[in-house]
C-alpha cells in the first residue's frame, strides 16, 4: 500500500524527514510513534499526497504522488490532527457535502451518510450543528467524514489527542472494526497505549529518522526487560540514589520525579531496595511499555 525509500522532507534549511525507508502492507494497522517534531506529520502529509516529496522515492497504492496526486487522494481517507469540520453545517451536511466533492451520486452519498452516522454513533445528532457536539463526537464525525469515499487507505494523524479515556476507547473500538473490514490504517500518535492497542507494526521516529521498527511486543522484548520497578524519592533525591540501586536491575533511568529500574523481577527490586535501608516515598511495579523502548533508544520520554 505504501513504499518509501530514502524519503526526505525539507523546509528551507530544516530537514524534517531525513531519509526513511518503510513499507505498509494491505489490511494492517501501521503506526508512527514519536514526540512532537519527530517528523511524523510531515511524513503523513507526503503519504496523503498534499505535501511534495523533497527527495527519495514514494509510492502510494502503486502510484507516484507527484504525477498521480488526484487519483491517490480519491482512494484514501485523511483524518487530520485538528478537526476541520464546517461549523456552519449540521452533522448530516458535513458528511453529505464532503461526499459530493468526490463526485458520488446524490443517492449513493445519502445512503453512505446514513451508514457512517450509525458507525460513528451520531444518528441522533444528524441535525445538530457542529458547535453543539462534544470533543469526542467531533472526532468521530471527522473520522466518519474521512470514510465517505470508502477508502482503501485511512490516514489518522494523532486521532485521539485531547479526548477523555472513554472517548478514546470508543474510537479505538471503531478503528479496530475498520481494520477488520479490510481498511488499511496508518496512524501517528505519541500515546504508547494507543500504539500497543491498535498497531500491528510501527516505527519509532525521532528527529526525522526511524530508530526502531517492528510489532509492539517484539520491540518491547528486544529493547526492554519484562518489568520495571519505579522508585520515587524526594524532589531532587532521585539522582542521588541511582548508584545505590544500579546493581539491582539491568539498567537504571533517572527521571526528574522517579527512578526506573529495568528488571525481570520488579518485586524483588523493591524488596532489595528496602533491605538496603532506602525508603522510597512510593513504589510501583509494572510491565515494560513502548515508552520504555523509546527511552532506551533516545534517552528521553515520548511526550516532551
From TrEMBL:
<dbReference type="InterPro" id="IPR003593">
    <property type="entry name" value="AAA+_ATPase"/>
</dbReference>
<protein>
    <submittedName>
        <fullName>ATP-binding cassette domain-containing protein</fullName>
    </submittedName>
</protein>
<keyword id="KW-0547">Nucleotide-binding</keyword>
<dbReference type="InterPro" id="IPR017871">
    <property type="entry name" value="ABC_transporter-like_CS"/>
</dbReference>
<dbReference type="InterPro" id="IPR050763">
    <property type="entry name" value="ABC_transporter_ATP-binding"/>
</dbReference>
<comment type="similarity">
    <text>Belongs to the ABC transporter superfamily.</text>
</comment>
<dbReference type="InterPro" id="IPR003439">
    <property type="entry name" value="ABC_transporter-like_ATP-bd"/>
</dbReference>
<feature type="domain" description="ABC transporter">
    <location>
        <begin position="2"/>
        <end position="232"/>
    </location>
</feature>
<keyword id="KW-0813">Transport</keyword>
<dbReference type="GO" id="GO:0005524">
    <property type="term" value="F:ATP binding"/>
</dbReference>
<dbReference type="InterPro" id="IPR027417">
    <property type="entry name" value="P-loop_NTPase"/>
</dbReference>
<keyword id="KW-0046">Antibiotic resistance</keyword>
<keyword id="KW-0067">ATP-binding</keyword>
<dbReference type="Pfam" id="PF00005">
    <property type="entry name" value="ABC_tran"/>
</dbReference>
Amino acid at each position: 500500500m505504501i513504499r518509501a525509500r530514502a524519503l526526505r522532507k525539507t523546509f528551507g534549511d530544516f530537514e524534517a524527514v531525513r531519509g526513511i525507508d518503510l513499507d505498509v502492507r494491505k489490511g494492517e494497522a501501521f503506526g508512527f510513534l514519536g514526540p512532537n517534531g519527530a517528523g511524523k506529520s510531515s511524513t503523513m502529509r507526503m503519504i496523503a499526497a498534499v505535501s511534495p516529496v523533497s527527495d527519495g522515492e514514494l509510492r502510494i497504492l502503486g502510484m507516484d504522488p507527484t504525477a498521480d496526486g488526484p487519483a491517490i487522494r480519491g482512494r484514501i481517507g485523511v483524518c487530520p490532527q485538528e478537526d476541520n469540520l464546517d461549523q456552519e453545517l449540521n452533522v448530516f451536511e458535513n458528511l453529505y457535502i464532503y461526499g459530493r466533492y468526490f463526485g458520488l451520486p446524490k443517492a449513493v452519498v445519502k445512503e453512505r451518510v446514513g451508514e457512517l452516522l450509525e458507525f460513528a454513533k451520531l444518528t441522533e445528532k444528524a441535525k445538530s450543528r457542529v458547535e453543539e457536539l462534544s470533543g469526542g463526537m467531533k472526532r468521530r464525525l471527522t473520522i466518519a467524514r474521512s470514510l465517505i469515499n470508502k477508502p482503501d487507505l485511512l490516514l489518522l494523524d494523532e486521532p485521539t489527542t485531547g479526548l477523555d479515556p472513554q472517548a478514546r476507547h470508543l474510537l479505538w473500538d471503531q478503528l479496530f472494526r475498520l481494520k477488520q473490514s479490510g481498511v488499511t490504517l496508518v496512524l501517528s500518535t505519541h500515546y504508547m497505549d494507543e500504539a500497543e492497542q491498535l498497531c500491528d507494526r510501527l516505527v519509532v521516529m525521532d528527529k526525522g529518522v526511524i530508530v526502531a521498527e517492528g510489532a509492539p511486543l517484539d520491540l518491547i522484548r528486544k529493547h526492554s526487560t519484562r518489568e520495571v520497578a519505579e522508585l520515587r524519592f524526594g524532589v531532587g533525591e532521585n539522582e542521588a540514589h541511582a548508584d545505590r540501586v544500579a546493581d539491582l536491575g539491568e539498567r537504571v533511568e533517572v527521571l526528574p520525579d522517579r527512578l526506573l529500574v529495568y528488571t525481570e523481577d520488579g518485586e524483588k527490586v523493591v524488596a532489595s531496595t528496602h533491605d538496603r535501608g532506602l525508603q522510597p516515598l512510593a513504589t510501583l511495579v509494572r510491565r515494560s511499555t513502548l515508552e520504555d523502548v523509546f527511552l532506551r533508544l533516545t534517552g528521553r520520554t515520548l511526550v516532551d
